[in-house]
Amino acid sequence: MxxxxxxxxxxxxxxxxxxxxxxxxxxxxxxxxxxPGKVPVSMLFAMELPHFxxxxxxxxxxxxxxLERNTRATLDGESxxxxxxxxxxxxxxxxxxxxxxxxxxxDLSAQVFATLYQAxxxxxxxxxxxxxxxxxPGQYYGYIYNETLAREAGVTEAPxxxxxxxxxxxxxxAQGLGFGPDGTMFALESSDLTTVSSYLIGTQVPDFLGxxxxxxxxDDLKRRQGTFAEGLAGCLDLSGAMVEKGxxxxxGLYNKRGNAVPVQERMLAGTMALTYSxxxxxxxxxxxxxxxxxxxxxxLSAEDxxxxxxxxxxxxxxxxxxxxxxxxxxxxxxxxSVLSLLSTPEGQAAFxxxxxxxxxYLAADVPVAEEIPEGLADCISCxxxxxxxxxxKLLNYFGRSMVSALNGELTPEEALSNVDHYFLEGxxxxxxxxxxxGVAAGDMIYENYNTRREETGIGNLVADAIREMTGADFAFAxxxxxxxxxxxxxxxxxxxxxxxxxxxxxxxxxVKGHVIREMLANGITTLIQDNGIPGGRFLNVSGLCYTFRxxxxxxxxxxxxxxxxxxxxxxETQSYKIAATSYMxxxxxxxxxxxxxxxxxxxxxxxxxxxEDVSLVEETDKTLGDSLQYYFQAHNGEAILARPEGRxxxxxxxx
Length: 655
Fold this sequence. Notes:
By secondary structure, the chain is of the alpha+beta class. The chain has 23 helices and 24 strands. Helix 17 (392-406) runs antiparallel to helix 18 (412-425).
């Protein structure tokens, strides 16, 4: 069984309330020094904040707020990566306030500004009774539909319940409207696991979570006397019905890349009838579309209960705990002043202007410029607003489990049972899956069997990880062992398992150079097969380079040259340490294409002769996935990106 380095799940309070680094004097030593005579305060964020920056400058002339723009995709991973290495920003930004980032945050409980927020949201952010983060202004969420298409289909009134919502989709579909090239007409505007979970939980609010029974269930859950299976058994009912009718596809709920369904593009083109998103997204659609009008409704009831809207902060801000070290007093006081200013109506208004938020969580009244759609405005004025807050890993696991059930990989009962097991008893495998491992600086793509026929970024990454973990001279990863991509942004344990899902362990061997030539020659023998899919034996390499002639219809591939990175030819008489999988070395034998034909490495199987000029140096218990985890942790001071760099050169078969 694979061994993993696990982080402990933080024991933060689970609540679903209803609303009615130490681097001497600078925890961020890579930040600019700032303007002369001013105290620099660094902060990462996903967009520009011109109004808030100006407010800070006007209010505190002695503070230089150094805002670094980052993408939403990398915000959490980049923030935590820097904190891990003692280079974190002074103000911490996160969308996962109960994740591991809490380990680096300062306790704000004694700060006056921490008491100025609405109790409903403040209580959900408590970690062991402490306030670690402040909620930024946020958004109200609900369904956005193409009102123009609805009218063309004969629907003139906004849907008042889930039955009417399905009727709207049926009517639009009957006219052949609102469909995209994938045949679907509904998707979430943001398909990350947090959004997936919030949406599925939100469907349960009007008829259960927002009622007395739901409040009691929530309280039982907080005391660990209730289960998700008891409270959320129907969370897939509506989505499941949409899947059955073809209105929703699996990628519409969750895809790691996050842009598998181009929701904005399709809504504006009239090839999507419905999405789940925020008031801000509604404003964007109506501002950019000349052909269609869009409307918004809250979460609807199937039983004639009052509808509800979901509310969620854009992100959360905290203070780097390293600021409490001696020598950082000036930066600490300046950072506190920034958060104190944020916690005023003026600070909230400036932030709202910058990020287009539709609500503030400050207890004091903060005017919001954006007009709230009528249905959501009614929910807000009557107090039908639901705030969802789970520990980040639990929320991710819930979303992932429900998507698996929607895709038919699990029954809904099995999925909820798994969530309850993790929530009540813990689970090392799940803990690993939902642990932030590191950050990818760009996409490293596995597609169209590319790791089985050419050099790729993802293939180079896997091979480099193997070589670095084992200390071998050269490392080899057969292309069939790589089955997924890594995308720009935060990388979790589950992502590494997708890239390298097999449990074959690694071995270090001492071999003569001629064995390496035989390996590489074997690796190019299945580039063309009758089924059109290249074989999995193609070798991704680290520590050396090779050139081969591509196969043609009349001639097989031909290995031409093997060199070291400096251009020196491989010495076929010299001994080298190499790392490869036990699978290639015969651990599963070589019958039925096991071992991918690497009999020249055989040290395990007794069905073929043992290899010559090959000896075992080390039989590890580490997998390819373990090597990737090792690599990210060994390089946690940098965002990881591997690209093709000329390790494998292909000469035309006709050349």
